User: What shape does this take?
Amino acid sequence: MYSESFKKSGSVEVICGSMFSGKTEELIRRLKRAQFANQKIAVFKPLTDNRYSDEDVVSHDLHSVKSRPVASPEEMLDIPGDIQVVGIDEAQFFDDSLVKVCQTLANAGKRVIIAGLDTDFLGNPFGPMPDLMAIAEDVQKVHAICVKCGSLANHSHRLSKDRNLVVLGEKDLYEPLCRHCYNNARKAGDQESAPNPES
Assistant: This one.
């Protein structure tokens, strides 16, 4: 289990789950606890994620923390030496070099806290998240609630027919579903998109 106490050995923590599961909320909570413990933090997010703010990391509940948008993970290495905790939001949007960057930061004694989607809208492992989970000292999977049946949700079902891997959106484009409801929604979508033999 993670701890707010600063460890000189460094560590990697991953918070993962579907959309609307509280990943960013948990990231912000841990970062603010670190600040309460008088630890110096640096927070990063992808330059492309400007849904709520160009600068801040913002949760769906509109809690926020100041961050630095970056185009590549390597920019995260450019931090003052006295930084003790590094937070990274929307990690799935970065390339695989994020894994090496997080290892470098942790090996330098930093506590690295990462939040991101573990699977994409097709249900496949997303970006560097599987490798980050593999190297982490602590992994917490958080869940949303399925909007169809009320069970725990671990899938982000896309409501549009856009097939691009990265499509930024909120409840207008995505809904959290459990495995059963997600599979049913995917089947229904496949049937809608199938050609009509009578046409």
Remarks:
- The mean pLDDT is 88.
- The chain is about 25% helix and 25% strand.
- Residues 12 and 177 are 28 Å apart (CA to CA).
- The domain at 11-143 is CATH 3.40.50.300 (Rossmann fold).
